[in-house]
């Protein structure tokens, strides 16, 4: 699936999908739930967390 199609399915722009992929934007819970449903994964899988990453504090 490309960014444009994913954005349409999730109700957001291609740019938003691009920002999420690059790690420059964290999706809202609502958007994360939509993405999890589209990809048939747990919502926890949408969020990536690197232990010890001080940039997130």
Automatic annotation (TrEMBL):
GO molecular function: DNA binding
SUPFAM superfamilies, A to Z: lambda repressor-like DNA-binding domains
Top-level taxon of the source organism: Bacteria
HTH cro/C1-type domain mapped to chain residues: 1-46
Segments forming a coiled coil: none
Keywords in alphabetical order: DNA-binding
Protein name: Helix-turn-helix transcriptional regulator
């Amino acid at each position: 699936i490309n960014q444009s199609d994913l954005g349409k399915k999730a109700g957001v722009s291609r740019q938003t999908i691009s920002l999420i992929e690059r790690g420059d934007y964290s999706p809202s819970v609502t958007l994360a739930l939509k993405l999890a449903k589209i990809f048939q994964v747990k919502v926890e899988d949408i969020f990536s967390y690197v232990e010890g990453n001080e940039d997130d504090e």
